[in-house]
Amino acid sequence: MIRGTRGCLPCLAPFSAASAPHQPHSRRSFQSGNMTSAQSQAKLSPSVAEAGDSLSSLPLFKPSLVIFDKDGTLVCFHTMWNSWCEQLASRMKEETTKEVSTELYSMLGYDQASKRVRMGMLAEKTHPYIMEKVVEMLMTEFKFNKEEATEVMDKTWKDTPENMQIKSTGNLGLLFKTLKEQDIKIAICTSDSREGTEEFLTKLGLESMVDLVLCGDDKDSISKPNPHNALFICEQLSVCPSKTIMVGDTPADTIMGQAANLGLTVGVLTGVGDNKDLSDADLIVPEVGDIIDLVTASEKSEMVPKVSKNMRITGRGLSKIVSQSSIDK
């Protein structure tokens, strides 16, 4: 039994975090239990607004906790990590006297021409995992032995970009303040390092409003999309998974939310994922600030969530909202 979830056991995924693989290699491994095929889940309605007749009769889903991914969800992924990719390649070239940028960028998922990060390792994996793969790349592509490759990595790796530029994806101060005013707890679950995450929170003055932070290099963290991190956060904050919203910009975030059987999983389009990438979400919104509309009442009724014509809902999402509403009634 997972500690801290007594009375909420029906909310949990059909398998425990302890039994799930530490480094999942395929999203298919998580299509189990109450999750149907990816093809049927991916079908989107035109928009939430066009389903207004169905949604207008539903009571507001009031979460007790919102878990946010960081990069791509709260901050612009490209602004922060483009320079980091190029700085790492430059340091590695200086250290090895070899041009490693082509192989490095391909592995990370960085497109130097467009200055954008694609879906891939940098967007979805932890720093320790990436470092391990860079060492392997140096060994296979450039014929370094393991000791040499590890030394290169140790000398050139930095968790954060030099002169880190932070561009938020919305008014995060207002968003967090609104959630706290409604007694909704806030957590951040990121693949980034604790060093970089704490620097981000400090620079934007958000640290006092965040109840828990779980980073990719923390000892209690297991890489997304394993459901462990979401369930661990719920346990630590004494919140049932069914009363939790997960918000992220990649399949790693949305599949984690579904695997943990959270109350609602929301994809945002401010990061590296598009509508197709985020098909495992229940709801897809343009930016993280739209979360306010999901948890606050509309002007016409204190019981009806405000919806935007830009919000897109999956069939699974509508079913989940209906089921939750029935429970709340």
Give a brief outline of the structure.
By secondary structure, this protein is an alpha/beta fold.
If you had to describe this structure to a student in words, what would you say it looks like?
- This protein is an alpha/beta fold and 329 residues long.
- It folds into 2 domains: 30-75 and 166-328, Rossmann fold (3-Layer(aba) Sandwich); 78-156, no CATH class.
- It has 13 helices and 9 strands.
- It has helices at 38-41, 52-55, 77-96, 101-108, 121-124, 127-142, 146-156, 172-181, 194-203, 228-236, 251-259, 291-295, 315-328; strands at 65-68, 110-111, 116-117, 185-189, 212-214, 244-248, 264-268, 283-285, 312-313.
- The strands form 2 sheets. Strands 5-4-1-6-7-8-9 form a 7-stranded mixed β-sheet.
- Helix 9 (194-203) links the parallel strand 4 and strand 5.
- Helix 4 (101-108) packs antiparallel against helix 6 and helix 6 packs across helix 7.
- The two termini are 28 Å apart.
Strand order of the largest sheet: 5-4-1-6-7-8-9
CATH level 1 name of the largest domain: Alpha Beta
Question: End-to-end span in angstroms?
Answer: 28 Å
Number of strands: 9
Biggest sheet overview: 7 strands, mixed
CATH architecture of the largest domain: 3-Layer(aba) Sandwich
List strands and helices in order, with pairings:
Elements: H1 38-41, H2 52-55, E1 65-68, H3 77-96, H4 101-108, E2 110-111, E3 116-117, H5 121-124, H6 127-142, H7 146-156, H8 172-181, E4 185-189, H9 194-203, E5 212-214, H10 228-236, E6 244-248, H11 251-259, E7 264-268, E8 283-285, H12 291-295, E9 312-313, H13 315-328
Parallel strand pairs: 1-4, 1-6, 4-5, 6-7, 7-8
Antiparallel strand pairs: 2-3, 8-9
